[in-house]
Amino acid sequence: MAARPAARLTMHRAAALLLIALPCAAPAAPGQEIPLRAFQDAINHWQSGHGTDYPRYRPDQYREIADNLVLLQHRGGGWAVNQDPQRILDDRARAEVVAAQATAGGSFDNRNTHTQVAYLAQAFDRSGDPRYRQAAVRGLDFILAEQIPACGGWPHSVPSRTAYHGHVTFADDVTSGVLTTLRRVQQDPVFAFIGADQRARVDRAVHQGDACVLRLQVRQGDALTLWAGQYDPTTLQPAQGRRFELPALVVDESVGVVRYLMSIPDPSPEVIAAVDGAMAWFQAHALQGVRLETFEATPEQFQHHRSTIDRRLVDDPGAPPLWGRFHDLRDSTVVLANREGERVARFDQVPRERRTGYHWYGTWPQALITTDYPRWQQRLARTGAR
After folding, report:
1. 126, 114, 123, 127: which is closest to 77 by C-alpha?
2. pLDDT per residue over 358-381, tens digit each?
3. DSSP 8-class letter at 289
4. pLDDT value for 31
């Protein structure tokens, strides 16, 4: 999982809920703009490495954006991670993209590949351009082919180029994001073009994926808790991602897993128990009376990002609940580490490069607790499921 750009760390989740806004862009024609929020993570990463001073298509230019997605797709059906689909390609960039089409595999990291399939399906629905349908079908074939047989989840990237790329991955919403798109294939008329054989494969993949999600929810004693960021595909035990991502409960992406489970129209008792268990954990392990403070600091250039700020935890009795990104698999204490993979006890022991280059604390479950979970409970009560 590529490190998130430091300048955008505190805004990442909020930005993910917004469409891309371009200064001075003409208003989109009614019905022309296909939401791009699913690509925000990839765009942030692209701009972190390449800057923002380059020409881009407006969000309403969905044909041009879809053309980019077709061009960026590998022949095997996948996509490389961290591309900006709004980038206007000059002749040199276009030649590089065409040459990269022969690259094997693709990535599901940073909400990748399933997002391209969903966008292309919407572009085909609006335009009737068969190239978009063909690219979506090939992308869906790639997704189905890469489901990990031992469990039913999805890997970070294929082919695996690191120790963790082949793990069953929940980090960066890999497995929950793919399953969300596959359920759209089952239910959304925009995917009506999917043939019977491929649709049957989707049904099997969703069934296996749901079983994987339920199987991998971590237990502490008899209590269901959250999910780890990744799992060994053979042993199905929580595993390490990058060196500073120790095996642990992962709060941010467990919120995504819970949202996925709550989206299931007719949840089984096992799904209901999984959601209830995770919600009980979120509420029991919120950090109270402490606030994450960001403040200006002497600019410093690191290998992966430049930082003009620093972060610290401060006591604040009026602060909203806070959670660690990672919590211990056994006792649910917050897990912090340096880039070398050594666990440290306090946030101020995390070097500034990692303090400002990674999400260690956040309020991710708050909307689930205050809004989404109560609504879900009400829906179950109305349908008699609870």
Report:
1. 114
2. 999 999 999 999 999 999 999 999
3. S
4. 54
